[in-house]
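Predict the holo structure. Ligand: 2-oxoglutaric acid.
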Amino acid sequence: MSVLKDIETVLIDYVKEYQDINGTFIHIYDNPPTPLEFLRTSVHPNRPAIIKGAFDHWPARHGWTNEYLRSKIGKSVVTVAVTPNGYADAVTYDPLTKKEYFVMPYEQKMTFNSFLDIIEGRTPSDNANYISLQNGSLSLEYSALEEDVDPGIAWCSEALGKQPDAVNFWFGDDKSITSLHKDPYENCYAVVRGQKTFILFPPAEHYCMHESVYQNAVYEPNENTGKLEIKPLESTTPWIPVNPLCPDFNRFPRFRNAQPIKITVNEGELLYLPALWFHQVMQSGEQGVIAINYWYDMDYSNILFPTTNLFRKLLTGVIEGHRDLLNQDEKNNGELKF
Ligand SMILES: O=C(O)CCC(=O)C(=O)O
């Protein structure tokens, strides 16, 4: 017991040391950086940055009005993440089974025109509707729009020595919130329309996140009422249960040690979100918020990835008692869920 206490004290010291050195500083580039400047200032220290003027040359920057999008892809069938509370892929309490699950959204196929009708308020909906498919959604479902953006962020591709693994198209409104999580990607996130607010925490604050393992579930419409209900599945996912918008410090006392960095990314700005940073994302904007993001595979050869797995095994595996995590090899798991 006292060894565990000692380990917790040492982990808090580690968090504080990182915070003392780095604070909540975010670099702002007034113009796109050179690859070398970007590597030195942002990638190497693994610190977020805002880059202005990074995609002023894209036709999408001013051209993606709802009218234009209707004319280009209005009749295409797209995948929309539908949830009753705006939180897709989030730890959610189910009053029916009195249990918390990692709940994934109901993935509804509809025409892009039908989606826009909901976002514009022409079709009423009790639910939050979010185009957030990921894993290369731009080429998968929006290929007609690819010519309006660049295939990569040139100075980032040059700095990292690779092309993006996936380019994703995001379209939602202020009802939809992406819950706190991390990804094994260097992320260039371009806000094309509206505003996105990111609440960020560095990988060094893993201790504060109270990550645990949850049974998976998915929202499904009830056959009679059409209302979305939680349907439990067999599998499990490690996830973060804390909502930084209203943290429950009684349940999650370690979160008191976290130092949130809140950044609003305005229309026309690009956020560099370094690999393995925890992030929760909110959005606001008239007639919907649109973003394109570029996921570049992270560098697995430096200390960051194994360190994150050490934290997961130590905190979630040993301290939280999910000992099955101790035998997992994250990199070779095939389906990585962070
Ligand atoms: O925009 C969002 O809602 C989420 C973005 C995100 O999680 C990501 O780019 O990794």
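The mean pLDDT is 95. DSSP finds eight helices and 18 strands in the chain.
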